[in-house]
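Let's practice the habit of predicting before peeking. Look at the sequence and jot down your guess about where helices and strands might fall. Then scroll down.
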Amino acid sequence: MGLFGKKKEQTEERVYEKSEELVLKEALETEVEKLQKEFRIKQEEIESITKKLQSVKEEYDVATSNLMSVKKESNQKKMELDTIYLEYKDIKSKITNADQIFNKNKKSIEERLWEKVKKQDGCWLWTGSTNEDGYGKIYASGGNGQKEKKVSVHRVAWESINGKITDGMSVLHQCDNPPCCNPNHLFLGTQADNIHDMYAKGRNRNIGPLGEAAPSAKLTADQVREIRSRKSSLALAKEFGISYRHLRQLFTGVRWKHIL
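Done guessing? Here is the structure:
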C-alpha cells in the first residue's frame, strides 16, 4: 500500500471514530434529556406531595386547635356541672333538714282537730271550716304520696276515741248538730241508718219523696225486702217486672237505700 493509501485509511478511521463519538454523544444527550425529564416529573410529584402534606398539616393544626377548644369547653362544662351538683347536694340537704324539722313539728290530724274544737257541756263545736251543710272539714294525708284530702271532722273525732271505722259505715249525730265532735254524741250506722235518721229528724226537706211515694216507683217496700231476701237472677227481675240493672241496684244499695 502506498503512502496515499495509508493516509486515506487513517482518515477513514478518524472519521469512523468521530462518528462513533457523535453517536455516543447523541445517545448520552438523549439519556440526559430523558433523565432530566424524569427528574422534573419526580420533582413535580414531590412538590405536589409537599403541598398535600402542607394542606394535611394545616387541617391537622385546625383539627388540633378545634379539639383543644372543645376540650377546654368540656372542662368548663364539667366545672359548671360540678358546681351545679354541689348546689343540688346543698339544696337537697336543706330540704331534708327542713322535712325533718317539719315532720318533727308537724301536728297529727287529731291534734289539729282538737285545737279547733270548743269543748263544753253538751255539743263540742268545731270552729274551723265547714261545708254548705255545716259539717266540719279538715285536711288529712292522702297516703302513699297522694295529695291531702278533706275529711269530715266528726269521723276523725270518732276514730280518735274508738279506732278505725269499718268500711261502708257512717258516723251519725245523735244530737243532729253537724259541727258537733263530741264522741258521746256520735254513733256508727249504715247508709240506710243515716237515711232513716234523716227522715226521723226531719232533714229531708231538700230531697224528693223516696220509695213508694216516688212517682217513678215500680216496687213497694215489702217487695224490695222480699227481693233482697232472695238470690239475684234474671228470672227474679222478670218476676217483679224490672230490669236486671234495676235488680242489681237494689242489691248494691244504689236504689231504696232507706229500706233495710
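How did you do? The beta strands are 117-118, 125-126, 137-140, 149-152, 170-173, 186-189.
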